[in-house]
Specification:
single chain, mainly alpha
Length: 95
């Protein structure tokens, strides 16, 4: 195996490990909004959604302010991604 292939292999394994860690964190967050009886703790769920909304709004605003994209471009991309599941409903499947 050449040096470039070896470096790329290490990079891929790092990305895979990072994705696994992110998936585990998402599963843990989902578990935290569940009650011991299997129901959903609505206060925790609302808090998680508010945190996600804040993070999303922050990223969107930074992209526009830094000139990476315009507000309209962001909206077009959002609608494009929304349609990937076959429905334009303002949602994306979680899993």
């Amino acid at each position: 195996m050449g040096l470039i292939n070896w470096i790329f292999d290490i990079y891929q394994h790092t990305q895979i490990d990072k994705a696994k860690d992110e998936a585990a964190a998402a599963r843990a967050e989902i578990a935290r909004v569940r009650t011991s009886g299997g129901g959903v703790d609505s206060a925790r769920l609302e808090r998680a959604l508010e945190e996600l909304a804040l993070a999303t709004k922050t990223v969107q605003r930074m992209l526009v302010e830094k000139g990476v994209c315009t507000h309209d471009e962001f909206g077009r991309k959002l609608r494009e991604l929304d349609r990937e599941d076959g429905r334009e409903d303002g949602r994306v499947p979680l899993l």
